[in-house]
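As described in the Methods, two query proteins were run sequentially through the folding procedure within a single session, without resetting any intermediate state between them. The first query and its resulting structure tokens are shown here.
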Amino acid sequence: MADLHADPTLDEVRAHLAPLLPAHAAFDGWSPEAVTLAAGQAGVDPDIARLAFKDGAVQMIDAWFRSIDHRMAEKLPAETLAAMKIRERITELVWARIAIVAPDREALRRALAILAMPQNASRAARMGWRAVDLMWQLAGDKATDFNHYTKRVTLGAVYASTVLALLDDETADLSDTRAFLERRIENVMRFERFKADFKARAEHRPSLSRFIGRLRYPAI
């Protein structure tokens, strides 16, 4: 990890400490103590570190999740993804996130418990949307219509369920989680094929509105 420069902003302090937080949060929770320990590990003034995370646990978790976004993007650059089909891109992007969080499963459990609290629901939803939106952007999605939203909702469900599978996975190589992800992606692909087929058939179906319009306004 590169050192911070002499006069960092609070945003820079948060980004610098974020990857270190889960190792301490696993034992001390998402707490000021975890911030202090991460600051000591990174050689950052603990008072500045605590100021950077003055809003508490959710701010710490948000910073960690942002660091996962960055690491995922670094792990799968554009030139790597370009050589893959869309299904492979999405699968590997989800898997990259899983591989990043896997060593910190206890911290992840604690984070999810905090985000599940009613007062944190909207913040948790924004974090989830940010993650799936980035995955689709990295995968090359250019949709601007309703599909833009349905793709992200669907991927959000896939990612969330895969994270839960990870938390219960006792295999050394996470093979159970990988198999679960592959099954979920296959289910999504089947649904997308069904939607495409349905749309194609609908284009050739008689239109009830056009038929009624002809009854009211017959061609002369």
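Immediately afterward, the second query was submitted; its sequence and tokens are:
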Amino acid sequence: MKESGSTRNQILVLLKTKGPLTVSDMAEHLGVTEMAVRRHLNTLERDQLVTSQLLRQSMGRPTSQYFLTEKSEEFFPKNYHTFTLDLLEDLEERHGEEIIEELFRSREKRLTETYQDRFKGLNLRERVEELAKLQDSKGYMVKWEENDQDSFTLIEYNCPIAQVANRYNQACSCELNWFRRLLDAEVEQYTCKAKGGQNCIYYIRPKAEQEA
């Protein structure tokens, strides 16, 4: 891959993981000149992969922030075929919404059974790390961090099933439920890409002790 192409890819990944950034922000992260960043942004804007918005500051001149367009989603990993939505919609039309609920419940059960052995014997921190590795291998672009009081935050910067999740939120519920089962922990979803969030963010903590 040519260096220029590689830098453009780095800019796309940077905007995906860091959110809207200015030219100076990107130059600092990538270790290149602002002129070089602007040159690549011109190409990305021409290809309709990024767009800009004027950012007014309390001091100094306004500057532009750059962010990804919907078209840029084609650049990031996707592990499903477009006919999936057609199949689900046909099933819903023929058999009603209950069949969709049943399909996602079956998927949740299958995912839990498929991966549960990988989580046996691990403490919560190790289970969170294992889940992050698992989801990252599927193209979710995952980052996790340990908070205070034995709690954790897990962030998914990409959603390989975004189009399905946008139409059928059951996909998100399915993911949340099998996270809870594999981690054997309390898991709350703070933001969801399918519901307008920039990323899917999960807060994880040990289960509350059962009262006697």
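The domain at 83-205 is CATH 3.30.1380.20 (Muramoyl-pentapeptide Carboxypeptidase; domain 2). We note this only descriptively and draw no conclusion about the first query from it.
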